[in-house]
Write a structure and sequence with these properties.
Order of helices and strands: HHEEEEHEEHHEEE
Strand content: 15-25%
Number of helices: 5
Low-confidence stretches: 34-46, 239-254
Largest sheet: 9 strands, mixed
Structural class: alpha+beta
Helix content: 25-40%
Oligomer: single chain
Radius of gyration: 25 Å
Distance between the termini: 76 Å
Mean pLDDT: 84
């Protein structure tokens, strides 16, 4: 091989090496940017799925003026005492709107807690379904898992629901169920039927209860139609003895 050929070969090798370096540099930058994005996204999801992120909007003693500034779509706030279920409840034009939008209306994988779009926003229906993602750490409706333990349900069965107009309802949880998303009597709020009887028959945990029902629903596992549902009844707050739930017990465990 002549000297000219060797020089040309070296130039080709050098050019290839430089191109490989450029490709590797670009790949490194892409991986770095993806890492930064995923870290930010995880932080974003964690932040907006935590109850603490919205504490400033939480109504106290029926005062909801601050909550109203959150969004035109907010309809209530739910607080299950001594659990991490302590969130505003949104209602979209359909049941997809808040799957990947947080309470501010921004895109977020954690979504928001939301009322079925066909329910009355004042919770005057006899049956009301509230949805939330199953987030790790017990955030959003990931906390529902703990209620599979009957003793835990009995110890954490009380809560408060405050509508956007300041109506306050005592919440008493009474049943835990695992079912399929296609179970129409559970998830179709327009279907008629004796839901109290259905719940009594199919719930794995059941305590006799009467009144308007709220159903807190979340996915049991990703990519399945299995759902976990926690049922409660609403009672007028004024009719509940103030001695039944102490002020201290209303503090939310984080």
């Amino acid at each position: 091989m002549g000297e000219d050929s060797l020089i040309k070969t070296r130039k080709v090798i050098i050019s290839i090496d430089r191109n490989i370096d450029r490709v590797l540099t670009v790949l490194f930058l892409i991986i770095l940017l993806l890492g930064i994005y995923f870290a930010y996204d995880a932080y974003h999801v964690f932040t907006f799925s935590s109850p603490n992120s919205l504490d400033g909007y939480k109504p106290m003693n029926g005062y909801t003026q601050t909550l109203k500034t959150l969004s035109d779509d907010v309809v209530a706030w739910i607080d299950i005492y001594d659990t991490s279920i302590d969130y505003p409840i949104m209602q979209g034009k359909d049941n997809s709107e808040y799957l990947n939008r947080n309470a501010y209306g921004d895109y977020s994988l954690s979504g928001a807690i939301f009322l079925d779009s066909l329910n009355a926003r004042d919770f005057s229906d006899d049956y009301n379904v509230i949805y939330g993602h199953h987030m790790s750490g017990g955030f959003m409706f990931g906390a529902i898992d703990a209620f599979e333990d009957a003793a835990y349900l009995d110890e954490h069965k009380r809560g408060l629901l405050t509508t956007i107009e300041g109506e306050m309802y005592d919440v008493t949880l009474f049943a835990f169920m695992q079912t399929d998303a296609n179970e129409s009597i559970v998830f179709d709020v327009t279907e008629e039927g004796d839901r109290h009887a259905f719940i009594a028959e199919h719930a794995s945990i059941y305590r006799p209860a009467e009144g308007r029902i709220i159903a807190l629903s979340t996915c049991k596992s990703p990519l399945t139609t299995e759902r976990t549902v926690l049922f409660g009844v609403l009672s007028d707050y004024e009719e509940i003895s103030t001695g039944t739930v102490s002020a201290e017990s209303r503090g939310t465990a984080r």
